[in-house]
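Listing S7. Sequence submitted for prediction.
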Amino acid sequence: MQPALLSLSPTQGPASGGTTVVLTGSGLSGASAVWFGSTAATSFTVNSATQITAVAPAGSGAVAVTVTTPGGTTGPVYFFYLSAPFLISVSPSGGPASGGTTVILTGTDLNGASAVRFGSTAATTYTVNSPTQITAVAPAGTGAVAVTVTTPGGTSNSVIYSYAGSPVLTGLSPAQGPTDAGSGVTLSGTGLTTTTAVHFGAVSAAFTVLSDTAVAVLAPAGTAGPVPVNVTTLGGTSNSLTYTRVAPPAI
């Protein structure tokens, strides 16, 4: 009996091979070979005259799958090899340990993503915007973790996302200064490496990160009296300490 193939399930898989594929047709008993293009299946099992389970070898592009039996060789049904996804960047590259940061993953072959992981933890949510971009929400975590994307083409390389602890301010030196701008103040604390903003009240200040425990700041101008000072980092916003502006003496 001349064998015939009717369908494959699934019809696609990674270029690295290894996909288990169910071939459905007729006259498949006694199959001696299953071919994916010119490459033999890694292995196959004849389940019945109408079904074979085969493991796809490595390959590329669209290939004709055929089965050879004592009755002849089937006509082709096509299997499509997919390129593995590739990640180029994650932006921003870090956020608070509590999670919740919306990040943009940029890369190639991201269509059909079935998972986005931050280390071993799944993203809280994600949306595939295009073959080159995914928007994901980072879960809670600690330290530096490898972000990966899984698609029908396989699992991507990794890009690094760093979880930052919440910043804490412990001191200002000096803790007071004039009402005009430009006085130098050193902020002391912990978790200051990723500082993105320093505020005196609602006013932003110019700053330079010296270390994880120190930030040099130029106090902005303001009215005389106390003003709360805080720091914002990738880990969140710190507690506030008080800086007091002193009015110049009256003449």
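Caption to Listing S7: primary sequence and predicted structure tokens for the chain studied. The two ends are 113 Å apart (CA to CA). The first strand starts at residue 4 and ends at 9.
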